[in-house]
Amino acid sequence: MSYLEYSVKTVPSGLRKVLYFNWPLALLIAAVASAGFLMLYSVAGGNLSTWAEPQMKRFGIGMVVMFVVAMVPIWFWRNMSALAYALSLMLLVFVEFFGTVGMGAQRWIDIGPVRLQPSELMKIALVMFLAAYYDWLPLRKVSHPVWVFIPVLIIVLPTMLVLKQPDLGTAILLLTGGGAVMFLAGVHWAYFAAVISGAVGLVWAVFQSRGTDWQLIKDYQFRRIDTFLDPSKDPLGAGYHITQSKIALGSGGWAGRGYMQGTQSRLNFLPEKHTDFIFTTLAEEFGFIGGASLLILYALIIVFCVSSAMTNQNRYAALLTLGIATTFFLFFAVNMSMVMGLAPVVGVPLPLVSYGGSAMLVLLLAFGLVQSAHVHKAR
Amino acid sequence: MRRTPKDTQTSARKITRRSLVLGGAQLGFMGLLAWRMRFLQVDQADQFRMLAEENRINMRLIPPARGEIYDRNGIAIARNEPAYRITMVEEDAGDVDEVIARLSRIVLLDPGDIERAKTEMKRSAPFLPITLADRVSWTDVSRIAVNTPALPGITPEVGLSRAYPLDQDFAHVVGYVGPVSDYDLSKIEDPDPVLMIPRFQIGKVGLEAKMEDDLRGTAGAKRVEVNAVGRVMRELDRQEGHQGASIQLTTDYLLQNYVQARLGGESAAAVVIDCTNGDILAIGSAPSFDPNLFVRGISVSDYRALTENKYRPLANKTVQGTYPPGSTFKMVVALAGLEAGVISGRDTYYCNGHLKVSNRRFHCWRRGGHGHLNVIGALRESCDVFFYELALEVGIERITEMANRLGLGVQHDLPMSAVASGLMPSKQWKRDVRGQEWVIGDTVNASIGQGFVLASPMQLAVMTARIASGNNVTPRLIKTIDGVEQPSGAGESLGISAASLKLARDGMFEVSNSRQGTGYGARVIAENMRMAGKSGTSQVRNISVAERAAGVTSNADLPWERRDHALWVDFAPFDNPKVAVAVVVEHGGGGSSVAAPIARDITLQALYGEDPPLEAYPAKDRDRIAEQQRRLRALRPRVEKEKMSRA
User: Fold this and answer.
1) Which residue of B has its CA nearest to A254?
2) How confident is the model at residue A168 (pLDDT cuts 50, 70, 90)?
């Protein structure tokens, strides 16, 4: 269908594709990931093999994956969207029954040496499927209630499954990421106003449900909200993470304590220092300058994606690129808010920096799709 | 379907508009994050820097020394001894395997411990000491000291560990300590942080467990400064902990040793109480075990040997074991009858060898019968029929009431594990527990301490002490805690009339000192030390008709588990009671032939405080006793003249 829109002459083909590869974006990604390697080396106490080395290997593999995905025409990926969504959904149902429990949540599938996290895949598959849906849907039907209800269902289904695991962080990411694609596709403002007021109502209901038998979220999630609202209440218990994270971050000052000189993360006062809380170590050792630099790198990635999407006439490609950029934004925004005490601790890693293979590979795959959209743009 | 160029343009314009809105919102949020970062890292940096400094100072606990336990003379029963362990610091050692290989050439290392140490080493920082071997001897420590240059990173460290110098004499009383287990922690509501120290020892059974709170002490703490990688740079200050309270027992270590040695390999228990104040002078349960084995970590085979032994060495039979008291219960029935006014000292019952109650024959132990007997005679010859008749008139409720007054069927408050309350049955009890009505035969059985009646050796000793003193004597095991004298167990008068008590005591005197008395064979000759006792032989089986026909009536022909329990209680000296003794020999046979001689030896030992003169014994026993004294003297512990530090 939509590949017919492309005039074969205006789309690069063959080796020429390599020229149209978005090299600056790839460079930005590599820069962020390198900051990650530095930090992983540092939190391991100067040990390369603990975290930094496996992370580098995964990044290498991920970059190859990104390149390969980028070389495949975007219309192929468009036709794969529904399948990717269906597969991810099936895997989510599968982990519900056969998954391995880790850190109090059901998230993993063990396939030999690979540990797969279907909720990670779903973040991308959902954006792909929604973009394909709006590409297929005639423009005038976009705000029609029936055609709004379908994507809502597409979003809510995996969100519920992920929430049940329970993985609050991913659920928020799916919901907001999916919503963002709907917003970009041009769904009427009023729907979003309604949903936001509904969400406020839901939050109110969640707090009302506390202690009753229809309690909507788990006790530990309530405790996280409590300690978020007032971390000093329980500084050695659940509020520990937030308090210690703020101490580490704040003690960094302007220029930081110097590489490998951060005391807080190394003395094990910091929890999860190589995953969710890795930003605090960076901010402690490199100070405000380091933290702000990373933020600027992230901002540049977003800007590159948005500008690529704005110049892309293909609806699927544009929506996909923006959806992935928004999901990426949500990743680091939620993580940073969390470690800075602006949001409760929900367990979202810092993208491209935190240690973890599943997240890294899926992110680079997603950027491969962004690259594919960029390469196969009609020029 | 192909989208028209117009549609494509509309779509692109819409997406551009919306992406600018969304992108703008994202950039705005990033600005918020940057502003927050600036607030934390620039505006509040000083405050957080200060908090971070506090984080660099670590608190480390110093384990307290455990309170020590002494006997009444200040001889150590449980004390803390330096225990050496070998530790290794990975980064100092260099080649770990080589150093361990060299070390194993000079001291014996357990391969399991080494494996554990190596895994621990991988997980922890390279500058932290890892224990390679625990509880090594001083010889090994000096060997290591000599070879220090060849053993980089190896240091012997000293800590305190519990030791029981008197080995098995106090195993059941004091119990033992062991490292805190996860199971121990799960039972404690809010565990003291000191329990988290690796290999910290807490009381597991006996007094060590019961008095844990007093013995443990309070942990000290030191504040240390750690550098960026957690290495201790210097100690900032130190607050010493307090040693646990030292506990002095009422027991006498020599008498205790004698009791354990005299019981020997029998499955038996003996209790010696001071009648005047309730002090437990000795409390022995045999066979015993070495508590030091448990502190070191007992081997599986040793442990199995203890648990599979049919004599149950791990059980503290003095307070945990309950036995039918047999004829030692007859004083209770006599006192109940006298106090109720059912009989007087002159009243007699006639014994023809049996009593028929509701179509059932209850035999006296003497088939031919005793003829007419008063209460003193009935006690002396232990006539069963007399007490059947008496019990039927007094009724079980008044007997139970008297038994409770004398300390039977009630739990004595003693700091030992699993103190049994025994059993004094009543009509209500049988209805509640057995779901059956009380029948008259139950009263008859109870009158001679059989049937449902159960008592521990401790309870029997308390009963005897109360009969001897007439006071509500309560047993006391702890003399002082941290030098503070604990309340005496002397007790008020029981309110039993002097006349009744005199009849019961006279009866017991006759048991030991009259030619017809059942305990005459184990009497004391010395005029001022004469004892008054009562034997008991309690059946653990019913002799079947088939067995009687086959002629199996002698205990010696039966397998051990089915033989009678041999019991004996006594107090002495008769004129001025000082000590009360109870002895139970499980499946030992006859009370007067087996338990009484043991009890007499223990009684005399307690009264003289040393080996009694042979003149105290009947002439024909003296050679045997002299030989026995020689044999038991060899088992006496040699204690260093090291007395309590705080008395």
Assistant:
1) B42
2) confident
CA–CA separation, B4 and A140 (whole Å): 13
pLDDT of residue A303: 95
| Chain A residues in contact with B47 (beta carbon < 8 A) | 250
Å from B321 to nearest chain A CA?
A: 47
Helix, strand and coil content of chain A, in percent to the nearest 5, comes to 70, 5, 25
What residues 169-208 of chain A have any CB closer than 8 A to a CB of chain B?
180, 183-186
Domain boundaries, chain A: 2-190+227-375
CA B567 from centre of chain = 22
With a cut of 50, say whether residue B647 has pLDDT above it. Answer: no
User: Hey, what long-range contacts does B105-112 have (CB within 8 A, 24 or more apart)?
Assistant: B106/B140, B106/B143, B106/B144, B106/B147, B107/B133, B107/B136, B107/B140, B107/B143, B107/B144, B108/B140, B109/B133
What integer best gives the mean pLDDT of chain B?
A: 87
Cβ separation A267–B30 shorter than 8 A: no
Stretch A118-130: mean pLDDT = 92
**Dihedral over Cα of B304, B308, B312, B316: its sign:** positive
What class does CATH assign to B83-159?
A: alpha beta
pLDDT at B321: 92
The enclosing H or E element of B282 equals strand B280-286
Q: Exposure string (b/e) for B179-198, b if CB count within 10 Å is 16 or more?
A: bbeeebeeeeeeebebbebe
**Is A309 close to B15, i.e. CB distance below 8 A?**
yes
Give the distance from residue B120's alpha carbon to the nearest chain A alpha carbon, in angstroms: 16
Token readout for B415 is: 């700091």
B42-46, B235-239, B441-445: which is most confident: B441-445
Judged by CB atoms closer than 8 Å, whether chains meet at B228 and A263 is answered as yes
Alpha-helical regions (H) of B211-282: 212-216, 253-263
- Residues 6 or more apart in contact with residue B189 via CB below 8 angstroms: none
For residue B38, give how far its alpha carbon lies from the nearest alpha carbon of chain A (Å).
6
Select from A268, A288, A326 the Cβ nearest to the Cβ of B22: A326
What is the three-class DSSP state of B318? coil
Q: Which residues contact B435 (CB under 8 A, 6 or more apart)?
A: none
**CA nearest to A4 within chain B:** B2
Contact B125 A45 (CB under 8 A): yes
The residue-averaged pLDDT of A265-294 equals 81
More confident residue, B330 or B647: B330
CA–CA separation, B476 and B273 (whole Å): 9
User: Taking 50 as the threshold, does the pLDDT of residue B1 lie above it?
Assistant: no
Per cent of chain B over pLDDT 90 is 57
pLDDT in tens, B543-597: 555 555 555 566 667 788 888 999 999 999 999 999 999 999 999 888 889 999 9
Which of B10, B15, B190 has the most A C-beta neighbours within 10 Å, making it the best mutation to test the interface with A?
Answer: B15
Indicate the helix (H) or strand (E) that contains B176. Answer: strand B176-179
Q: Indicate the helix (H) or strand (E) that contains B85.
A: strand B76-89
Structure-model confidence comparison of residues A346 and B345, the more confident one:
B345
Closest Cα in chain A to B11: A315
Distance CA A18, CA A181 (A): 28
| Cα separation, A131 vs B427, whole angstroms | 85
* Interface pTM, i.e. ipTM: 0.89
Task: Identify whether B327 is a catalytic site residue.
Answer: yes
Domain residue ranges in chain B = 83-159
Reduced to 3 states (helix: H, G, I; strand: E, B; else coil), residue B481 is strand
- Catalytic site residue from B288, B327, B469, B592: B327
**DSSP-H helix ranges across B315-421:** 330-340, 375-381, 384-394, 396-405
Q: Find the CB nearest B22 among A184, A266, A288.
A: A184
- Residue B362's identity, in one-letter code, is F
What's the pLDDT at B485?
93
